[in-house]
UniProtKB/TrEMBL annotation:
This is Flagellar protein FliL. InterPro entries: FliL. GO terms for cellular component: bacterial-type flagellum basal body; plasma membrane. It comes from the Bacteria. One of its GO terms (biological process) is bacterial-type flagellum-dependent swarming motility. Controls the rotational direction of flagella during chemotaxis.
Amino acid sequence: MAEKKKDEAAEVKGGSKLKWIILILIVVLLLAVGAGAAYYFLIVKSDDQAEEAGDGSQAQGAEAMAPAVQAPLIYHRLEAFTVNITAPGPVRFLRVKMTVVTRDEAVVAALDKHTPMIRNDLLSLLAGQEFATVNTSEGKDALREELKQSLTGILTKAGEPASIEEVLFTDFVMQ
């Protein structure tokens, strides 16, 4: 009788191990199926869609995969601007030296070509600034953006390339 109980206990333990092994195999199988489905939908489908968008040539696909190479930055210094600015009390002066950042040599040539028009418009823009506004860092940032937009507008109006990335102050003095 004692032997019979031991045999039954051994069968129960063996059956329990078999259940665990089957459960683990099912989980591994489900993970493998999920990984295969993810690979198919994320990798294979996106490649098919990319080929449908283009003509399917491998050369075009290789170009699309390569990172875009950008031209080096070009820093072009403009002449200094000195203007009277609006302020309560004594007369205030603003002297600004700035550098235009671009990646296009044609923009530099256009800036040199249209210097009189650029100086006229930027002098008017700078003279309209208020001391209290320009005296803050937010005001300076806003002025830099206004100068960039003005330069872009001048070059566009003149029919020149206008790809200006940034306007940097190299000297900013208020008295």
